[in-house]
Design goal:
homodimer, 243 residues, alpha/beta, 8 helices, 7 strands
């Protein structure tokens, strides 16, 4: 049985709590809120792992409270390196690479968990913990994790913004955005059989300047024009290099 | 029984052929290649509908061959207006809004089909045809269709390019792109319960300049920096307006 204390009461902590509670070999002994009550003294029972699921900025100060602990302390951040945790501790990272919302249930089995620790036995402990809730566990260094997190900004944050622009164009022209949802789903699903470079289609890939000029004129919003322009140029350059 | 002749032997035509062949009330009487043999005289048997599934540029010239026909002629383009077909004909549009690849099977039941025709009986004929293969049939004008097609460039072509950039960042830092796939799937799936404006997360949405500056520095490629910059600015402006 692995005893876990969760520090933080945000969305990631709540989803981890649910996933850990379902696992047979994990016991969540306590969940500490990230403000006020977090001191080592507030801990009711020692755990094997303290998982600090709080905002990047707060990791260093909050983790200072656990300096007295002899147990493993792991944060859940994609971008903070492992050494944002106190060097006096056994340190680790337990980063679930997914977009979490309060409103949506997630299936942890499919969520990649990137783990990192300094000692071999801590890597094993994190690995056991991660494998209890997920089928996709990866050992990833702080440097690699930072780049994964950056790539995630492109494929998640920026992609969602493109959906938002698509939605705006639909609204302006009084067509339901729903019509685009099967296309959005298939665009993502294609990656299971094709690489993005193979899956690319459209006027920019063909360097079809006539269609590009027409579509550019169709856009009435300057910001949308800029996004159209930069992404079109980037696609053209990608395929020029390839040829 | 609706008799259909398909004109064009590209990817869209092939997928339509498969879908029509499975439908009980549709008979594909002939498929004509888009080059050479397309003349009205090449037609072996009159159909109820001629579906011209060829590139936008060729629609006007190829459809001229069907001027003598008294039957409905429909193209499958997202961006060409209905009047790219000869005015002497009964004209229509049958636009399946999806990204097709030769390599991937598609489930036509979920693919939105946007139909348009000038006569009431032709709208009904296209509607019957579309409903035989899809559960998502929409009457859409040429102007609306053009804007849907433009929105599709953002949510499909541009989104796929962001996947490509994500892939490049992973390669450069020796992490498998596969780790990002569940995130990509969930980013698309979220739209079933949240609008894109509700689903947005990340440093740009929070206007977190510290993280933005760090991530920008992490990028080594000028084109990626430009894409990062424009999309970040666009997200910041979107949420400024909202506040």
């Amino acid at each position: 049985m692995i005893k876990v204390t969760l520090v933080g009461k945000g969305t990631v902590s709540k989803h981890l709590y649910k996933a850990f509670s379902k696992a047979e070999n994990i016991e969540v002994v306590q969940t500490l809120a990230s403000r006020g009550e977090i001191t080592f003294e507030a801990i009711e029972e020692e755990s094997d792992i303290y998982i600090i699921a709080i905002s990047d900025d707060a990791i260093t100060s909050v983790s200072q409270q656990f300096i007295k602990s002899k147990k493993l302390i792991a944060h859940t951040s994609g971008s903070a390196p492992i050494d944002h945790l106190p060097r006096e501790n056994r340190r680790g990272v337990f980063y679930p690479l997914q977009t979490f919302s309060k409103e949506r249930e997630v299936d942890f089995k499919t969520i990649p968990i990137c783990i990192e620790a300094e000692r071999k036995e801590d890597v094993e402990l994190l690995s056991t913990l991660a494998n209890s809730i997920s089928n996709a566990v990866y050992k990833i260094s702080s440097e690699q994790r930072k780049s994964l997190h950056l790539a995630a900004v492109f494929v998640n944050n920026f992609t969602n913004h493109l959906y938002q622009i698509g939605n705006e164009i639909c609204k302006k022209n009084k067509v339901p955005f729903t019509i685009l949802k099967p296309l959005i789903t298939e665009t993502a699903a294609k990656l299971h059989t094709l690489s993005p470079i193979e899956a690319q289609t459209g006027p920019a890939m063909r360097n079809d300047q006539k269609t590009i000029a027409k579509q550019f004129d169709q856009l009435k919003n300057d910001k949308q024009k800029e996004v159209y322009n930069i992404l079109t140029q980037s696609i053209i350059e990608t395929y020029e290099k390839k040829l």
